Structure formats: C-alpha cells, structure tokens
Amino acid sequence: MSTDEVVMEFSPPVRLPHTGLRLPDRRLSITRYKQVPGGAGFTAWLRVDGLHAGVIEGDHDGRLRTFAPTDPAGGWVVLAQYAARCRTGHGGELTVKRLLEDLVTETLWARHAGAAERAGRLLLRLLDHVAGPDGVRADHPSVQGRADSAMPRSIKQWKELAALLRRTMPPGRHGWWQGWTNSRWRDVTAPPDGVPAGPTDTGTEERR
After folding, report:
1. What is the dihedral of CA 132, 134, 140, 145, to 10 degrees?
2. In this structure, is residue 52 part of a structural domain?
3. What share of the chain is helix, strand, coil (3-state, %, to 5)?
4. Is residue 178 part of a domain?
5. Which domain holds residue 72?
6. Same domain, residue pair 125 and 177
7. Inside any domain, residue 8
8. DSSP code string of 106-143
C-alpha cells in the first residue's frame, strides 16, 4: 500500500472545494487514504469527533464497497443522522454511502492538489456531462480526466494553456477543463452552454 496520508479537517459551516459537498460542522474527517497495490481499490479511515470511527473500503472507481464502523450497533445511526444534515453542491440529499464516497474523493483531490502545489504545477481536471446507459446525459458533470501543466502567470498564459488543451486533449462538446489555483477551481476552457462558470459540484469522482 501507498504510505501517502492526508488529514482533512472541515470548519463549520463549509462547502468542500473539490466535490461541492456541504457539511454542517467539522465532526467528520478522513485521516488517511491508501490505494491497494495495482490500483484495484482503496482504503480510507474515518474519524467522528476526533475519534477513529471505522474503515472504508472501495473499488478502483471510487465507489464504496464496505464500511466497518468501530461501533457496529451505533456507527451507522450516527452517520445516517449526519448525512441527513448534509447536501450536495446542488442542494440534493445524501445517503451515507454518497457521503463517505464524497469525503474520500475530497481527500484524494486534496492530495493531488497538494502534490501539484509542491511541484509548482497547475492541477487540471476534465469535467463532462456523461451519458448514461439510456443515452441521456447527466444533469451534473463528473470528472473524466486529470492532468497538470506549468502554472500560468498571466492572462496570456491562461489563454495559451486553453488553446493547448483544446488542441492536444480536446474536452469534447459537453466537457471542459478546470485548473486548481490553490483556493478554487477555475475554468480553463469554456464550459458548455448552460453551465455556469466557476466552481462545480462533481460529487463522487473518478480516481485516476
């Protein structure tokens, strides 16, 4: 397993920057995220009120496989009560499963952002409204790719980066690239019509 560890603490009230998840307070935190060798899945550790509360295991695509609470009888009850007070970035309700997945996703993207910042690079993510099995495109975007680039230092360099992405890694008709500026996600290429510019709630995101 990887030895990388990220500690995420959330101050109330807060909207998490990478997933858009809205939390009422700072009771929950992810203290560690580790990939299974070969990328077959992940393990994450959950704390509630600063105490170890259970182990999360998931698949390679970020979906929750199991959650083993330290309190088998009351752990799920506490999380269900907490999830009922949380909302997605679009105001939707969350299940415990979605809450845990998004907390892990937030921690993973915080790790990506931290690594890019230490290297002096710009973290990039590709968002797209992916069509489901029925051929209907999703109402909200999900992350379909991750990259990095030299950090733009001027408006001209941001425009040059956008042109480079459109030429070498075109986002497609329903997609667009964003860059993490150490405080928020910034649109690099233009989002599709009908999508507001700026931060976007992506929910559980693909792990790449």
Report:
1. 20
2. yes
3. 25, 30, 45
4. yes
5. 14-112
6. yes
7. no
8. HHHHHHHHHHHHHTTEEEEEEEE--B-TTSPBPSS-EE
| d(C-alpha 124, C-alpha 101), whole Å | 21
Q: In terms of domains, do 103 and 39 share one? A: yes
Query: Rounded to whole angstroms, how far apart are CA atoms 138 and 92?
Result: 15
Q: pLDDT tens digits, the chain, 208 residues: what are they?
A: 343 445 555 554 889 999 999 999 888 989 888 888 877 888 999 998 888 999 999 988 778 899 999 998 888 988 999 999 999 888 889 999 999 999 999 988 999 999 999 999 999 999 998 766 666 666 778 899 999 999 999 999 999 999 999 999 999 888 999 999 988 999 999 998 866 554 455 554 444 3
Eight-class DSSP state of 80: H
In a domain, 194, yes or no: no
> What residues does 47 pair with on adjacent strands?
29, 52
DSSP 47-73: EETTEEEEEEEEETTS-EEEEEESSTT
Record the pTM: 0.82
Residue 7: what pLDDT?
54
Domain count, the chain: 2
Task: Report which residue type is found at 33.
Answer: Y
Return the closest-CA partner of residue 201 out of 86, 50, 39: 86
* CB-count exposure of residue 30 (10 Å: 0-12, 13-18, 19+): buried
Same domain, 128 and 172: yes
Q: Six-digit token pair at 57? A: 């295991």
Regarding whether 97 and 22 lie in a shared domain, the answer is yes
